[in-house]
Amino acid sequence: MDTKLLERICNENACGGAAITSLDQQALCLNHFLLRCYAKLEAVDPRSQKFHEDPVDLPSMRAFIEECSQKALEISLQSENLSNLERGRLLDILLWSGELFVLLRAPRITFADSTPLGESSKPARAASPRT
Ligand SMILES: [Zn+2]
């Protein structure tokens, strides 16, 4: 199924590069895959400055993080002509999503610490059952 991606074009606006993978069912070139992973991981990382307390759907967040790391691993195993920088970034995403996955398994600790004052009326994120 994924082999068809090789003939596809990156979904990002005005990119036109050859898609190397897909994320969230959109074909992406390596560069845009990396950019999207970084943007999304930053948004869900409680330690990040870009983290904001939007209501998030924990299961779908986990699914995205899993997809990120899965695809990053696939790319690094399947692509032979990656530069060291690209490999480094893929590894970075792998490690980062691994960390986040662990953090999100214990949401009460992490998210409680980063909750701003006056947010106590919010329902706990840990309420949803684990899959
Ligand atoms: Zn692109």
Question: Could you name the key traits of this structure?
Answer:
single chain; 131 residues; mainly alpha; two-stranded antiparallel sheet; 4 helices; 50% helix; binds zinc ion
Protein model, in words:
With 131 residues, this protein is mainly α. It has a domain at 30-113. 50% of the residues lie in helices and 5% in strands. The protein contains four helices and two strands, in the order ββαααα. A two-stranded antiparallel ribbon has the order 1-2. Helix 1 packs parallel to helix 3 (84-105) and helix 2 (58-78) packs antiparallel against helix 3 (84-105). It starts with 20 loop residues before the first strand and ends in a 17-residue tail after the last helix. The relative contact order is 0.13. Residues 118-122 have low confidence and may be disordered. The structure holds zinc ion.
